[in-house]
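Same chain as my last thread, 253 residues:
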Amino acid sequence: MSLRILRRLLPDWGTTYGPPGDGPFPAVMVLHGSEGPWAGWSHRNAALLAAHGFLAFPLSYSKGGNPWNAGSISEVPLDRTVQALAALRSFAFAGPRVGLYGLSRGGEHALLVTSLMARDGLEGPPDAVAAHSPADVVCGAFHAATWRDRGDPGWRVWDPADRAWTWRGSSEALRPTTAIEIERYNGPLFLSHGSEDKTWSCEMTRRLEKRLRAAGRSPEVHYYEGQDHVPDSPTENEHFAQVIAFFARHLAA
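reply #2:
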């Protein structure tokens, strides 16, 4: 029996998932949330994309961690994400167009790095971007080892005194609550959010949509009524059908 999804090593970066054959395949880099790469969700999502004809690369960007600890999102260099995008573009199995897909903190990451590349006029920005449950502003650092359940004394989603990201060696311009200027990006953009998200308010995506339309952009936006941060099975199926259709439209050679 032949495998329908193959693992291939992107040299110096890590595992990719894609269809059998020589390709090239439309490529998507997947950005995990605060659960970190060890939890496996970004690899699961990459495998789902691979099952539908994409070469998917789940980038591990959080610091530290192990199978029992997600690690931290603190002073993460976004320049490394730019380098990873370039490496995926140059991979022999990747087609000429590369997308970026992030969820939760990965959604923030995707929008932020894309906006910075657009602002600074860097070569090789993503050809299409999808973000589920993203923030509309830069958020603070997340340290899994000190995370507490909602309601516990000292509970917080992220540390407002610590910075999550750096750009060109500095975090000064990426202080928490700084607006993510994704309206600078003129490529295809997909946004989605559960209307009852208790982790990242759906109002963040509503504000993003409002700003984008005011700037003359036309994002594809989906709100999942009654859904929390992690959608139920029927809604997740709907979401992936929408994401796959979005990338198929915009990444086809």
